[in-house]
Write a structure and sequence with these properties.
The complex is a heterodimer of chains A (945) and B (442). Chain A is of the alpha/beta class. Chain A has 30 helices and 37 strands. In chain A, the strands form eleven sheets. In chain A, strands 5-4-16-15-14-6-7 form a seven-stranded mixed β-sheet. In chain A, strands 20-24-21-23-22-25 form a six-stranded mixed β-barrel. In chain A, helix 4 (119-135) crosses helix 17. Chain B has a single domain (6-429), classed as Formate dehydrogenase/DMSO reductase domain (Formate dehydrogenase/DMSO reductase fold), CATH 1.20.1630.10. Chain B has helices spanning 6-15, 22-48, 63-87, 97-118, 144-177, 180-189, 197-230, 242-268, 277-308, 311-322, 326-338, 346-349, 352-379, 394-417, 423-429. Classes of the chains: A alpha/beta (945), B mainly alpha (442).
Chain lengths: 945, 442
């Protein structure tokens, strides 16, 4: 046999062997026959869109790979969020890929249970029904309730209702600022919620306004706020938080004025009174007469000086702002707006000529009038568009009863929720990432939303359904546009090239003249009514959860698994009680407490903390869904049964210990630092003074890096503990969520966690945060102990983990002083279709291997290769790991430590720089910058002196 | 042993291999089933992932590694008795060393399973071996775990060879009385032994050399095992006293288990006249010594934690004695260093009940020593937010019981298939029989 024949036979036999092998997991790889123009396999496409998780209207860039969205990021050009995004924004992908979304329309049968139906048939039924109503001249019996939209969908809904002769749609949002709206109306004759800005604000007073969490535009505020605190070392911007509960926002304040829930009004009026003394204003003086600090302070358990000093600060400030939270009533908001106008905030930080989209939300009166009509049987057909009022409206609204009276309730929703339980028809819709629309967060900006991928479940958009229904009623189309997309084009009237450009950019701006002159107020104000507060009873407030907002984000496991900023608790909410109060009544953490008001009662586990005023209790809103998919149902407790008409208003409450007990699950063991200096803070006057010097001793030669040594700095003065970085890390790195039970066993998979420690150095309340992820040590303790070199040091300074090589001895984790390594205890499931979200650039790990933060090595490699192709080095700021990219306050900075000019190198040499457990000489690549505490606002320190 | 003749010894020991009663099969079957149960649970764990066990972040090592160190420790007494005491010509070892050696081999085999059981991906465990391959992948010899692999495999090889060599003359003696298939097997295992002068000479030298080779292993293997901990930076592990501390502990627990196993064995086999109370007393004296060393190590650990000025070390040691694992800690202290002090009294050293109770308590204590060292150190490391407590689940418990099943099953099989007391060496210490004319009684 010659060599050729041998090779032929060899080839033939091996082909036979290959074709004889089959595995169950065999999949076909089919090339595109006609490749779509935009899609190049392996190359990501980015589409601009708008975040619709809350009405703030942040701009999005959505990263798509092979036709599926894998990551959302903030649009770096967008004027609101400038590339930043909160945790809820990051998790918007889990709305898109939620496995519990509806695929088919649901129609209620005679027995009252849902039956799947073809959507076309459902639309036809609905159309015929509406048609008969219109024919009977009963079009007024048709109504619509919708979530807040302010673009073409809103127009389309209006036009739809208008054309068939129905009522104007009710716009319902649980988190609304109608109180501010009516206050502005009363004072300035403008029925709007004004745009607010913290840009360069030097004195910020928040009266229960959690502007870093949910208030109006949290990402924008966080971004602006951090920029101000950037200057903390030089220009001293001051933030005072007056409220019952030290929220995540309150936690970053320089000073917390502890007023009981319900005391906001007295505080605002006395503040106004004091300000009038410094800066006379007849109307304000009249309005706040009799509320001097000395007479009021005692009633709300604070010192008159707190009010006087705050008044003085505000009056002296150049760009001050006062914000009133959701719990403030109309008169409180009037007082606040009066203060804003007296101290000159109008036109500088509060813009009356730029109404926010919140202004469009229907007021409680309108909603009540509508519900009354329903109860009277005047409504026959109701369309519910993407809103869930049953979950957020208190019983006293009688909305559920109203829905029962309505003959036909049609709900448009991506998945079943509490409200669809009352619907006759549920039409499955696309989520915003699959849909065309626009959204105007305020008058100056219009965001454009485009489908970033094909509908995951093959359903259509709400607009398309409205068009179809309209067509079946009238045989015509709205604006003569067969589809909703055509409707938008007709509505906006852009040329093709402008349209393409605008879609690429994601937003357009209208010029607004910001330099308005403050209006002189002429309104005559009635004297404010003060109900005598009875502080024998505890006053209770609820605030929208920064994790779930009004409950709409509760079906996103990434969010649920982020330990909350105040208590590090996951998958759960709790009632927050003051520790002194709790001690007096024998209540401990995890005890189940019964809360009772006139309206009703609930049982909920307690959390005891000094972070709430003595006479107050609080529960985060948005938990306790009874129907919201597998991830959202039965997570925590809803405070709704306790609440009055305005759910955010304080109510007095009775507290009873039931004697039962549950375990609130937290991934962190303790919040005490034991003087270990993990999360450090420093007095402003003492920056750089107490630095410990650790000698750089080493038996071995120093590790040499060639061109790059990647590193990070984390500014703890900027970190607010919001967890956006964690959500981004989940999305980018295919990290599985594991659920409550596994977290209780220490099996959470987060590569990046935010450790929360009690502030015990400068105050007796509050938290300190420290984001903790792999420190990429130069002398990494994890590396030498690995028997198979799965953990090794790359030449650009990364501490690399090779999943394929790992055999799972877990020694690396034992030897890691930062405990940032995560072990795959199981093979975690990614239920269909959540697997579509997995980032194809990152390995999905299987059971038995160790994993950890990689500094998003896939992004480093991408940028490095690009730079190499272009024959240059990677530019500073070119690489942004997911956490750095999204951090709303830019607390995280990433770059090359070998480059002396890079931002990260400069920050590393900041006098506030330190590294936890530095004495162990790990020479970590992450440097932390101490939190700064202003000397005047360090109550504990002051007591000592 | 006074008054015994060579023949009596020969017969008494070979009689231990007589066909067993039903009860014996029941016991071996029970332990076999226990072992099979443990293995099935291991298989269940492989299929589902290590999450079914109790180990968690940050306590990544738990009962599995505790068991590993415990069994390696047990394995130490055998070689100590057979090799070191052989070199020292300690006569009291003669009657017990065979069982101790068997125990060593079985304990190393049991211990060797645990690093495999605890691996996340046991199917690639061979990556820890330096096997040349086309991908040029090589184990990391800096890692204490690789040192472990080498130490344990060396120890298993040497102790098994030593065991088998020591058995040759005895197996030949058994061969003479065996019939059928047993005879064939014993013939192979006796390596053609005929008791010629030349063979005895070679055998003696070989045994001496092996003893000399095994002696340093007694010290080194457990030192290497202790480096699994000492070479890390974990507070509570990172300590230079770990090697001697672990070796002493190993001998402590090993001798205790020898006593625990031999007391029933001599009773069942009715060889009280060969394994005498004197043998036990000698072991008790050694236990007293190791108990004192271990107690000293416990004390010195606290001194070092304080003297080092390292707040993390100090915190760990404080927490050990007062925290969530304090019961385990005090069990360890009492069982390992207080209870053995009873051996200062001759009454306890020579009382079978006393010996049995103390030896069992020492084994409990030594298991808890490893548990305390491993778990408490990992549970409270540097960052308080990342602390977390560990407790085993049913998976770890069943697998642990399974390993006892494995060990005891092997030991019971050994007792019936191989002479559990060295015939040769017991004969050596018998007084030379007096000649009766030309009638030699050999």
């Amino acid at each position: 046999m010659d060599r050729k024949t041998f090779l032929q036979i060899l080839g033939l036999t091996s082909a036979g062997i290959v074709s004889g092998c089959k595995t169950d997991t065999q999949r076909l790889i089919i090339p595109y026959v006609i490749p779509p123009q935009e899609i190049v396999p392996g190359i990501a496409n980015w589409y601009a869109s708008s975040c619709r998780e809350c009405p703030a209207g942040c701009g999005l860039l959505v990263r798509c790979r092979e036709g599926r969205a894998v990551k959302v990021e903030g649009n770096s050009e967008h004027p609101i969020n400038q590339g930043k995004l909160c945790a809820r924004g990051q998790a918007t992908l889990q709305e898109l890929y939620n496995p519990d979304r509806l695929i088919t329309s649901q129609m209620r049968n005679a027995e009252g249970s849902f039956v799947s139906h073809d959507t076309e048939i459902a639309i036809k039924h609905i159309g015929n029904h509406v048609k008969s109503l219109v024919a009977q001249k009963s079009a007024k019996k048709i109504a619509m309730i919708t979530s807040l939209n302010s673009g073409s969908l809103a127009n389309c809904a209006d036009e739809f209702m208008n054309s068939i002769g129905g009522e104007k749609p009710i716009i319902y949002e649980a988190v609304n600022y109608s109180v501010i709206k009516s206050a502005c109306n009363k004072l300035f004759g403008k029925n709007i919620v004004p745009k607010m800005s913290l840009q360069d604000a030097d004195v910020i007073l928040s009266i229960g306004a959690d502007f870093l969490e949910t208030y109006i535009s949290p990402v924008e505020f966080a971004r602006q706020f951090a920029k101000n605190s950037d200057a903390k070392e030089g220009r001293k911007s001051v933030f005072i938080y007056a409220g019952a509960q030290l929220s995540m926002t309150g936690n970053v304040a320089d000073k917390w004025i502890q007023i009981p829930a319900g005391g906001e009004k007295l505080f605002a009026l006395s503040l106004l009174n004091e300000i009038c003394k410094l800066n006379p204003n007849p109307i304000a003086k009249n309005f706040s007469e009799g509320f001097s600090a000395d007479s009021v302070a005692g009633k709300i358990f604070i010192s008159p000086n707190d009010i006087k000093q705050t008044a003085e600060l505000l009056v002296k400030a150049k760009r001050p702002i006062v914000m009133g939270g959701l719990m403030c009533d109309k008169e409180t908001q009037i007082a606040i707006m009066l203060i804003n106008s007296i101290i000159g905030a109008i036109g500088k930080t509060v813009f009356l000529n730029n109404p926010l989209s919140y202004s469009n939300i229907s007021t409680d009166e309108e909603i009540e009038a509508f519900i009354k009509k329903c109860l009277e049987g005047k409504i026959d057909t109701l369309f519910i568009l993407q809103t869930n009022p049953i979950f957020t409206m208190p019983k006293s609204f009688r909305f559920a009863e109203a829905l029962k009276k309505i003959r036909m309730v049609v709900a448009f929703a991506p998945m079943l929720n509490e409200t669809t339980e009352y619907a006759n028809y549920v039409i499955p819709t696309n989520t915003p990432l699959e849909d065309w629309d626009e959204y105007q967060p305020d008058a100056s900006i219009r965001n454009y939303q485009q489908p970033v991928m094909e509908s995951v479940f093959g359903v259509s958009s709400t607009g398309d359904y409205l068009q179809k229904i309209f067509k079946s009623i009238t045989d015509k189309s709205l604006k003569n546009s067969p589809t909703f997309y055509d409707y938008i084009r007709a509505n906006l009237n852009y040329s093709e090239s402008d349209w393409k450009q605008i879609l690429g950019k994601g937003y357009s701006e209208n010029n607004i003249l910001y330099s308005e002159t403050p209006k002189t107020i002429t309104a005559s104000l009635p004297k404010p009514k003060i109900q005598a507060m009875n502080f024998d009873a505890i006053h209770f407030i609820t605030t929208p959860s920064y994790k779930y907002y009004d409950g709409r984000s509760a079906n996103k496991p990434w969010i649920s698994e982020i330990p909350d900023a105040s208590a590090s608790i996951v998958w759960e909410n709790y009632v927050t009680l003051n520790s002194k109060y709790a001690e007096m009544y024998g209540i401990k953490n995890h005890d189940i407490i019964e809360l009772t008001t006139d309206a009703g009662s609930i049982e909920i586990p307690a959390r005891v903390t000094p972070d709430i005023e003595y006479h107050s209790a609080a529960v985060a809103f948005g938990f306790g869904h009874t129907k919201f998919g597998r991830y959202g149902t039965n997570v925590g407790f809803s405070p709704l049964p306790l609440l009055g008409k305005n759910i955010w208003s304080p109510v007095s409450i009775q507290i009873k210990n039931t004697g039962k007990w549950t375990k609130l699950i937290s991934p962190s063991d303790t919040d005490l630092q034991y003087q270990r200096g993990i999360s450090q803070a420093v007095l402003l006057s003492e920056i750089g003074q107490h630095k410990k010097h650790h000698e750089d001793l080493n038996m071995y030669p120093k590790v040499q890096h060639e061109i790059y040594r990647w590193g990070m700095t984390v500014d703890l003065d900027k970190c607010i503990g919001c967890g956006a970085c964690i959500a981004a890390c989940y999305a980018e790195n295919n990290i599985p969520t594991v659920g409550k039970e596994l977290i209780s066993k220490g099996r959470e998979m987060q590569w990046l966690r935010i450790e929360r420690y009690r502030e015990d150095e400068f105050a007796d309340y509050g938290n300190r945060y420290i984001p903790m992820m792999c420190q990429h040590c130069e002398n990494a303790p994890c590396e030498p102990v690995c028997p198979v070199y799965a953990a090794y040091h790359s030449k650009d300074g990364l501490n690399v983990q090779v999943y394929n090589r790992c055999i799972g001895t877990r020694y690396c984790s034992n030897n890691c002083p930062y405990k940032v390594r995560r072990f795959n205890w199981f093979s975690y499931e990614h239920p269909h279709p959540t697997h579509l979200q997995l980032n194809p650039d990152v390995t999905v790990r299987d059971k038995g291997v160790m994993e950890k933060c990689t500094f998003c090595v896939q992004r480093i490699i991408e940028a490095r290769d690009k730079a190499k192709d272009e024959g240059r080095l990677v530019r500073d700021g070119e690489i942004k790991p997911a956490c750095v990219q999204t951090c709303p306050t830019s607390a995280l900075v990433f770059g090359n430590l070998l480059d002396e000019e890079s931002l990260v190198s400069k920050l590393k040499n900041n006098p506030r720089a330190y590294r936890p457990i530095e004495e162990y000489n790990t020479r970590s690549a992450i440097t932390y910058l101490q939190k700064v505490v202003k000397d005047d606002y360090a109550p504990k320190k002051k007591n000592k002196v | 042993m006074e008054g015994l003749t060579y023949k009596q010894v020969n017969d008494a020991i070979i009689n231990t291999l007589a066909p067993p009663r039903k009860f014996y099969f029941a016991i071996v079957g029970f332990f076999g089933l226990l072992f099979a149960l443990g293995m099935s649970v291991w298989f269940y764990m492989i299929i589902n992932g290590l999450g079914v066990a109790g180990i968690r972040h940050p306590v990544m090592w738990g009962v599995f590694i505790t068991n590993f160190v415990f069994w390696v420790g047990i394995a130490h007494s055998g070689t100590l008795i057979s090799a070191i005491l052989y070199l020292f010509r300690a006569e009291w070892r003669m009657s017990i060393y065979r069982s101790a050696e068997a125990m060593t081999v079985f304990a190393v085999a049991t211990a060797g399973m645990y690093p495999l059981i605890h691996l996340g991906r046991v199917w690639v465990a061979y990556w820890t071996l330096p096997i040349p391959n086309e991908m040029l992948l090589w184990p990391n010899f800096k890692s204490p775990l690789i040192m472990d692999v080498i130490a344990i495999s060396t120890y298993l090889t040497v102790s098994a060879s030593f065991f088998l060599i020591g058995l040759i003359p005895d197996i030949a003696a058994v061969r003479e009385k065996a019939t059928g298939i047993r005879k064939k097997i014993y013939t192979i295992l006796s390596f053609g032994w005929h008791g010629t002068n030349e063979q005895w000479r070679h055998y003696g030298r070989a045994y001496l050399f092996f003893a000399a080779l095994a002696t340093p292993l007694v010290i080194s293997v457990h030192s290497v095992v202790s480096w699994d901990f000492a070479l890390s930076i974990v507070p509570g592990w990172h300590s230079t006293i770990f090697a001697p501390y672990f070796v002493a502990g190993a001998i402590h627990s090993g001798l205790a288990l020898v006593i625990t196993l031999l007391i029933p064995l001599r009773k069942i086999f009715k060889v009280e006249n060969i394994i005498t109370i004197k043998n036990f007393e000698s072991m008790a004296k050694v236990i007293l010594l190791t108990g004192l060393i271990v107690g000293y190590a416990y004390a010195i650990e606290y001194f070092l934690a304080w003297y080092s000025g390292n707040p993390y070390e100090l915190a760990i040691f404080k927490w050990r004695a007062s925290g969530d694992y304090a019961p385990a800690f005090w069990t360890m202290v009492i069982c390992n260093s207080i209870v053995p002090l009873l051996f200062f009294f001759k009454k306890f050293r020579t009382s079978i009940v006393g010996l049995l109770v103390v030896s069992i308590l020492i084994n409990v204590g030594m298991w808890f020593e490893r548990y305390v060292i491993i778990v408490t150190s990992l549970a409270h490391e540097f960052l308080p937010a990342a602390w977390g407590n560990y407790s085993p689940t049913w998976v770890e418990i069943v697998i642990s019981l399974g390993s006892w099943g494995f060990f005891l099953m092997l030991f019971f099989l050994f007792a019936k298939f191989l002479p559990s007391i060295s015939i040769t060496e017991v004969k050596e210490i018998l007084p030379t029989p007096k000649r009766k004319g030309s009638n030699n009684e050999h």
